[in-house]
Write a structure and sequence with these properties.
Blueprint lengths: L1 E8 L7 E9 L2 E7 L10 E10 L1 E6 L17 H17 L2 E6 L4 H9 L7 E4 L3 E3 L12 H11 L2 E3 L3 H13 L5 E4 L18 H13 L4 E5 L2 H10 L3 E4 L5 H10 L2 E3 L2 H10 L7 H24 L24 H8 L4 H8 L25 E4 L16 E6 L2 E5 L3
Parallel strand pairs: 1-4, 5-6, 6-7, 8-9, 10-11, 11-12, 12-13
Antiparallel strand pairs: 1-2, 2-3, 4-14, 14-15, 15-16
Length: 413
């Protein structure tokens, strides 16, 4: 039994509580609320902290193990090297206050096993396996011969090329076979891919509907990478649960998101960082040009979504290893970007905590909130993040981290 007393407790959803207590019984929260209402916990260890909040969720990250902002690096790096780097990135994520990751293509679906068995220290990982891409789509590496790319993707599993309904069905089943908790589809062109245009829709209506239906039979939802409005609309009409990026989202598309109760994962961090870092981060010339071209539109779309009240969850789209210009450990910047775009700090924290599990649909754990019966995944901070949201982007301000009631980061306060 553990009792934590905090000057302020931010529950994830709802108003903050001053002079609060959190009681943990094993891996589960037993009480969260005013200190006066906390029952006595005989023999419990007592910890006093300035601020307490749920562990954060990054619902769009990639454990890929590459060191530069050029995804072509996966084609020339041994898988064992990529995996070793990703293992370190998992540790860094926890230190930054992220206790849960929805990993939307990469090594996460396998890394999750190592974390769960205790071989690796890391967050809870809900992996997608390989992202489903049409041939020549965002998940293809256009500069290389197709036969070579098929070999690369078989080796790494970072994406799965499929064309036509039967191949799309098999693509879903192949990800389920390795334990995917969510399915990722690349429903538009992208930035990090060479020849496709971010506005252009990818996959037909029949293909998208087949992917969503096959995922639903296994109680999985589909996350749709979409920049252009045609892809956003097609993904929503097919029943995709989340829209990733949403760069060309407008009022009409926002209304459709509201009607479908979909969740936007804007990934503002990565677009901003690609533009700021530029070629110094090893980004390919074509990717840099695309990022610059869509940057202002992406900002505009995010502001529209906030004004319209579209539900959002935080996702950084980090795909490079820690220590780089846009690597793991910088995930908390996404919360600040939401505030910069018009969210109130408490809303942005909700997007980073309570909304995270909703992006998994039926696979969602009881997580992201400090309330009785929920997973005991939470953080102690040196100061109140509502006073300065930028604290959440500073891992040194995250003094203690608990996952499942176990202390996994412990710095003095």
């Amino acid at each position: 039994m553990l009792r934590i007393e905090a000057d302020i407790l931010i529950p994830g959803r709802g108003d903050p509580i001053h002079n609060a207590a959190l009681i943990v019984d094993g891996p589960t929260i037993a009480y969260a609320g005013p200190i006066e209402g906390a029952h006595s916990a005989a023999g419990a260890a007592v910890v006093n902290v300035p601020a307490l909040m749920p562990g954060m969720w990054d619902v769009h990250g990639h454990f890929m193990g590459i060191r530069t902002l050029n995804v072509e690096e996966i084609a020339r790096t041994p898988l064992a090297v990529l995996a070793a780097r990703a293992t370190k990135d998992a540790e860094v994520a926890v230190s930054a206050g992220f206790t849960s990751i929805r990993e939307l293509s990469g090594l996460g679906v396998h890394l999750a096993r190592a974390v769960a068995e205790g071989s690796v220290r890391g967050p809870r990982i809900y992996g997608a396996g390989g992202a489903l891409s049409q041939t020549g789509g965002h998940g293809d590496l256009h500069a290389f011969p197709l036969d070579f790319i098929h070999d690369v993707l078989r080796r790494t599993g970072f994406s799965y090329l499929c064309d036509g309904v039967p191949e799309c069905l098999k693509g879903v089943r192949m990800q389920l076979r390795i334990g995917a908790r969510v399915i990722k589809v690349l429903a538009s062109g992208g930035v990090a891919s060479e020849l496709d245009h971010p506005v252009h829709a990818q996959f037909s209506r029949e293909e998208l509907e087949a992917i969503v239906a096959e995922a639903a039979r296994a109680d999985r939802v589909v996350a749709a990478h979409c920049h252009g409005k045609p892809g956003i609309v097609a993904a929503l009409r097919a029943g995709c649960r989340t829209i990733e990026h949403g760069t060309f989202l407008d009022e009409e598309a926002a209304d459709l998101m509201l009607a479908r109760e979909a969740i936007l994962v804007p990934t503002r961090f990565i677009i901003d960082r690609l533009v700021r870092v530029g070629k110094e981060g090893g980004i390919a010339e074509y990717a840099y040009r695309k990022a610059v071209a869509i940057n202002e539109q992406h900002q505009k779309a995010l502001r529209i979504a906030i004004r319209k009240g579209v539900r959002m969850a935080t996702g950084s789209d980090i795909f490079t290893s820690a220590g780089g210009p846009a690597g793991w450990g910088l995930n908390g910047h996404e919360v600040g970007h939401l505030v910069e775009a018009g969210m109130k700090p408490l809303q942005a924290i909700e997007a980073a905590t309570a909304t995270g599990p909703l992006t998994l649909g039926p696979q969602a754990p009881k997580s992201g909130q400090l309330q009785a019966g929920y997973d005991a995944d939470f953080l102690a901070l040196a100061k109140n993040p509502l006073d300065r949201i930028g604290l959440l982007a500073e891992p040194e301000q995250v003094r203690k981290v608990w996952i499942g009631g176990e202390l996994v980061k412990d710095l003095p306060i």
